[in-house]
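Incident log entry.

Two folding requests arrived from the same account within the same minute. Monitoring flagged them as a possible duplicate submission, but the sequences differ. Recording both here for audit purposes.

Request one:
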Amino acid sequence: MSNDQTPAADGPFRPDLGTRDEAPQFVLPLVARIERAAPPARTDALETAARAVLVMLTDERSVGDGEWARAIRDWQDARIRKVVRRARGAEWRRAEALPGITVTGKSAEVRVFPPVPLDGWPKDLARLQVSGTDLDDPDPVSPADPAVPVLWLNPDLDMSAGKAMAQAGHGAQLAWWELPDEARTAWQTAGFPLAVRTAGPSHWPGLVKSGLPTVRDAGFTEIAPGSCTVVADHPALR
């Protein structure tokens, strides 16, 4: 069951039709820097994308009377779509020149932009490719620190890195919505530490039944509608 703080039949990531589908549709663009000679590690890219979503949600320009606040509200009133595209070289430099925020990880750089209409992408972002975001982890990924929020990926789904980055962002956003104010402040002050890991096959069923925030994908790309993609395990929500 999804804990997305909206009615079950009209959640932001669920396939069911509802009032969110009647609202004007927006998308949160994320651009990952993927240079041919030095692509980022997959897990680091997923974690950096998730943090980028949180940074965008909490930026002073996104709240209150900030210059991005109206776009954020309009986006959250409809389906909460995120699309990850890739850029390198001059493409990345053009993306950096547009209003947004660049978040860096150990090897990854992800730039997040304020939401745009579904069919109204800036041309320097619209020309970027969605495909080609397949990434690998060259080194073994260490176990997640139990004190850090973990975004658990469904082990039964085969998602491209770009798709998984968007899903991790969804999970981080649901966790943020669920947290009490004190826990939100602590997480933000710490710089949004988090981990993204693929759950073990025996661990996953318990996570889905745990009552933690759960993303059920709307099925626009790659996977079937209603697929459970991420469970957001924040210590404050256990």
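Request two (distinct sequence, not a duplicate):
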Amino acid sequence: MPRPSDPVARSAAPTGDTERTEGPAGAGAATGATGRIRRFSRAERWVHRSTAALMGLCAASAACLYLPALAELVGRRHLVVTVHVWSGLLLVGPFLLGLASRAFRADLRRLGRFGPHDGVWLRAALRRDRVTRRPAGKFNAGQKVYAGWLAGAVLVMAGTGALMWWTGLVPLARRTAATFVHDWLALAVAAVLAAHVGKALADPEARRGLRTGSVSRAWAEREHPLWRHERDERDERDEE
């Protein structure tokens, strides 16, 4: 029997108080009447949309460079290369601008913090175990791994791409190695992004959260049962 102090038990227990949500600056706001919980601030949604647009432009221009049929259809190779390079280099722009948002910085800390419950979630996911409960805070372990991997991949892609674009920086042998890493990592990124989009298409409420900033309380309790515990801890810190 779980104890009332246990995070999972606390998250699942019904309460009579008004639900508190995270506003644009991370402050609490009541939404008890609507039954919805603020998940993402306006700044966070802007960062996600801008990053997705730049990533899509980067992937589309890459396809036009590497697939002969698309390259012949589009033509203007130098323009496509220029679009590809700058859309890749600008990928860090939304992230850097997003650091001005308190809510964005708070979510970055959440994404970089792993706890014991994340290990439980990952083991259940790897075993494709649909019986074991998968505890998760605002972000589950899969989202944390995805965010960290993609951030590292973007940095490597930007670095190898720069070596390919500015040919005078390193000798030919290193540019060849950079091209090899860039091309194969691009395929891995494409596969991971396709899986990410597939997961999003399978979860309309998650997409609604990114579109409007709020999600239903029932969805939050089912998919992210420890998130209430995280909000309670934040409110306690704010009151001290």
